[in-house]
Amino acid sequence: MTDGWQDLGSVEALKATPLQEVQVGGKKVALSFRDGAFGAVSGVCNHVGGPLGQGTLEGDYLVCPWHYWKFHRSTGEGEPGYEADRVPRYALREEGGRLLIQTQPESKRHKTPHAPHRLTLAGERGDGPPRVLGISTTAMTEEHPRYSTSEALLETALTHAAEAHGAETRLVRLGALKFRNCEGFYSKSANACTWPCSITQMDPADEMEQVYEGLVQWADVVLVATPIRWGAASALYYRMAERLNCVQNALTTHDKVLIRDKVASFIITGGQDNVQAVAGQQLGFFAELGFVFPPFPYVAHSRGWSAEDMENNVRYVRESEELHAGTRALVDRGVELAQRLRASSACPAKIARGGRKAHRSS
Ligand code: FES
Question: What is the residue range of 11's domain?
């Protein structure tokens, strides 16, 4: 490094790679070559720090590999319409077949202020009746609904919550929501899996926000109802669970506890078996999100492996006073625990999780 310039290497060799990440004075720089010209800008995205030099080139724009924000490869400006959102640019020169870069950028980073997403606005819970959220994860067509044993018990639960506890209730049917699959941002980096979910921030048509808002901001008690499909919870349940990675990941990356003093319980039904495996997954996953559980936190029903007579399964759940009474009792235990938690407000907003490698934003 001489006079504030750093030798990046042979011009001919560097031309061979359209986009690469190089280190300049300890900082990441995205170096590109296209249409006979090099460009160099900061390799750190304005959004949440994605590695621009590891992204892709779309014309003269670098596309961030994390959530696809775009910056001009030479000027550092954001894509048309977002020019003011820019990353620093670096001067380059060629000398004796070598490519040199100035170690200090020629321009400054500018982040356009964005209004905070409504999911980040932490409203006070305040007084008021208990709030019970039911999430039904069964799949069916809206035009031709059928009797769902899990959803029927969930409806029993919500009716009981309102009648016996004066609760406000909501029912979210995942099958009626249009939401995108998790795109695996976490698999790129823990820091790429953001709260709120980047899909929710980027795509106003994505309806997963109803689940986030219900779980994180609104509910005191959450009841998740699922059928058993081939020994596991439903596919819709897992689509939701994958999108909830960002809730758990807020603890991993920022020690931030989004689910505080909230109760989860489960309704699990299937014509065939595997109740315990489904319950085990749900208890483990919802514990990781921050929920706590009442004693005996699920009601469940299955007729066993050899029972293929689904009509009788439906009839059994419809007519079983025991199952419906058990569901009402589950609601009582959940609401009672939620009220105690609200009174004590025991869970802190931050917990240093420990026991795992830290993934902190630099
Ligand atoms: S788009 Fe670059 S970090 Fe999100």
Answer: 5-102
